[in-house]
Amino acid sequence: MSNSLMDLEETATHTGPKGVINDWRRFKLESMDQENLPPAKRELLRQMSSPSRSRDDTRANLNRKMSVQEYELLKEEDEGCLKKYRKRCMQEMHDKLSFGPKFEGVHDLDSGEAFLEVIEKEHHSTVVVVHIYKIGVKGCEELNNCLDCLATEYPTVKFCRIDAVASGAAERFSDEFLPTLLVYKAGELLGNFLACTQHLNEEFFATDVEAFLNSYGLLPEKELPGMDDEEENDIE
C-alpha cells in the first residue's frame, strides 16, 4: 500500500463512531499522568500504546474492541480531559475550515496608495473593513474605539482606518459623510456606508457596530476561544 493511501486510511480512522472512539482513546492515553499510576495500570498503558509495534500492528490495536481493563482505566480520568478533547476536536475542525491570514489590531493607513494596496493585494478570502474618519467629527473617535474591540473578536478580518485629510480624500469625503465604513473582499466593494453612525443610536458600542455589519452578512463567524481560555474558566 502506498504512503498516501496509508495516510488516507489513518485519516479515515478519525471519522465515524469507531474513529471517534479510537481518537479519544489515543488522546486519553497521551494526556494521562503515567508516572502517578499504579504499576499494574502503568503496564496496561504500556501494552496499549507500545511504540515498538509496527504501523500495521498499531492500526489493528486502535481498531480492536476496548477491553474491560482499558475501559476501567480510561473512564477514571476526570471531566477536564473530556473537555480538552472536545475542544481540540472543535478547534481542529475550525482550523480546517479557516483560510487566509490573521491580524492583530486595527491597521492605520497613511496614504491613498496604502489604501489601494490593502484593497488590491490582500488575501482573496480576507474581509477588509476600512474606516475613513476625520479628527473632531462626531462619531469618528467612538467608531475607532469600536473597531479596536472588533479586531480582537475577528482576527481574520483586516480592520483599517485612514484619516480623510492625511489621505488627501478630504474633498471626496466631507464632514457630512463621515464616519464612512467601506467593506471589501477580493478587491470588490461589498459595503459602502456613508455617515454610518446615522444607522446607530446616539450612544453606540462595539456590539452595535458588529450587529450592523452582520445585518449585511459582512462579518465571518467568530473565532473559537482558545484552549487556554477554557482552562482558565474551569479553574475559576
From TrEMBL:
Work out whether the entry's keyword set contains Phosphoprotein: yes
| Gene Ontology BP annotations | regulation of G protein-coupled receptor signaling pathway; visual perception
Q: Where do the Phosducin domain residues begin and end?
A: 6-225
Q: Which Pfam families match?
A: Phosducin
Q: Which UniProt keywords apply?
A: Phosphoprotein, Sensory transduction, Vision
Q: Cellular component terms, GO, for this chain's entry?
A: photoreceptor outer segment
The record's Gene3D superfamilies line, in alphabetical order, gives:
Glutaredoxin, Phosducin, domain 2
Signal sequence range:
none
Task: State if Phosphoprotein is listed as a keyword.
Answer: yes
The family line of this record is: Belongs to the phosducin family.
Q: What is this protein called?
A: Phosducin
The protein's organism comes out as Stegastes partitus
